[in-house]
Amino acid sequence: MLIALYIMLGLALALGILLGYAALKFKVEGDPLIARIDAILPQTQCGQCGFPGCKPYATA
C-alpha cells in the first residue's frame, strides 16, 4: 500500500516539475501597451463599440 502511495507521489512530483518547466519555457509574452489600454477600458457594455469586448478594441 505504501509503495503505491510513493509511486503516485513521485509521479505527481515529476509531472508537476515538468509542467512548471514547460510553463516557463513556452511562456507567451503579451504586449504591455495592450494590457495597459485594456486595464483603462471599462469592461462593461460589451459590443457597443462594434468590437466583441475591450481586449479586441485595445488590440485594434
Largest sheet: none
From the N-terminal CA to the C-terminal CA, the straight-line distance is: 58 Å
Strand tally is 0
Measured on Cα atoms, how large is the radius of gyration?
Answer: 21 Å
**Amount of helix:** 55-70%
The portion of residues forming beta strands comes to under 5%
Residue ranges: pLDDT <50 for 5 or more in a row?
none
Mean pLDDT value: 88
Element order, helices and strands? HHH
The secondary structure category is mainly alpha
**Can you tell me the overall shape?**
elongated
How many helices? 3
Query: In total, how many domains does the architecture comprise?
Result: 1
Fold and architecture overview:
The chain has 60 residues and is mainly alpha-helical. It has one domain. Helix content is 65%, strand content 0%. It is built from 3 helices and no strands. 0% of the residues are buried.
